[in-house]
Amino acid sequence: MDFRIRQLQCFLTLSDLLNYGKTARALYMSQPTISFQIKSLEEAFNIKLFERDRQQVRLTDAGYAFREYAQNIMDTVDAAQECLTGLHTRLRLRASFGPVGQFVLLPAVIRMLAAQYPNFELDVAELTTEQQMARIAEGKIDALLMVGAMPVTGLRFDPICTEPLIAFVSCQSHLASQRSISVQELRNVSIIASREKDCRFHKPFLHNLLAPFGITPRIVESPQSCAVQFAYAASGEGIAITTSSMAACTFPGVVAVPFKESLPPMQLGLASMQANETRAMTIFRKVVMECAEAALERSVQATSRPQHGPEAVKHFPNHREAS
């Protein structure tokens, strides 16, 4: 069986107008061409679709039956064409987020995208660090927001801010009532760290962070999920060390407490592959940079402790405007 889309167009138009001359004018074709297309379609199905005499053109019973199928085929073709055409102009981006990105920045980004780019599709995936690195390199994720720089070949990293570190402790802990705690307190408590299969960097980071103070951390391993790690902290299993803007978020059973000592801050930013210069990526980068300063500034104001608070979040103004 061999038939063409043009033949279906001719059939459907003729079945509506029931006039070869009008059909030819409607499709900007000659009348002999319409006749040829209909004849070819009838030969393909080995059945007569129209009865024609000097007075009128009418559908046969087979023509009436075939009309619904022909319309369904044309509707499917039109939908496929619209979909494929839209791929060139579609604004769709797949992203994954670090804790600050997810809890502090993502709401503002979603609001701005909805207001300024209502057709923008943002697909969010909750991934471990190891999954993030693998998928962005494979092109399965377009952007990683509020993460540290990663050892991925061809990765572009746009710094957004540096944040001081704080501790999340159980409300039941004696440390919860203190305005600030000393790093030396970490000699006597466990520290929650992501499992190595989720993030190869977390435990080495904690060891390097505390080594200058002569402390070897007692590690309690946990899945790399902010909610799970803070639940561990709430249960008294250990202390979670995170960045200061997370203190603006509410998690049951834990309290955010700054450190007395000055610890190395953590640099966070937006990661994407250098080769990814799609319009969706450009828009997302611009929106993120515009949202970052306001959202992070609000989180600092909400958690500021004038006497013993951590250093303020430091932004990178040169990166707020993205091309």
TrEMBL record:
The cross-references to Pfam families, in alphabetical order and at most eight, read: HTH_1, LysR_substrate
Q: Where is the HTH lysR-type domain?
A: 1-60
CDD domains registered for this protein in UniProt: PBP2_LTTR_aromatics_like (cd08414)
Among its keywords, does the record have DNA-binding? yes
Keyword match DNA-binding: yes
A cellular component term from Gene Ontology for this protein is: protein-DNA complex
Q: State the residue spans of region: Disordered.
A: 299-323
Q: Which domain of life is it from?
A: Bacteria
Per its UniProt record, what SUPFAM superfamilies does this chain match? Periplasmic binding protein-like II (SSF53850), Winged helix' DNA-binding domain (SSF46785)
**Compositional bias (Basic and acidic residues):** 311-323
**Which keywords does this Swiss-Prot/TrEMBL entry list?**
DNA-binding, Transcription, Transcription regulation
MF terms from GO for this chain are: DNA binding; DNA-binding transcription factor activity
Q: Per the similarity annotation, which family is this?
A: Belongs to the LysR transcriptional regulatory family.
Q: Which PANTHER family match?
A: HCA OPERON TRANSCRIPTIONAL ACTIVATOR HCAR (PTHR30346:SF0), TRANSCRIPTIONAL DUAL REGULATOR HCAR-RELATED (PTHR30346)
Protein's UniProt name:
DNA-binding transcriptional LysR family regulator
Question: What organism, scientifically named, is this protein from?
Answer: Granulicella arctica
Lineage runs: Bacteria, Pseudomonadati, Acidobacteriota, Terriglobia, Terriglobales
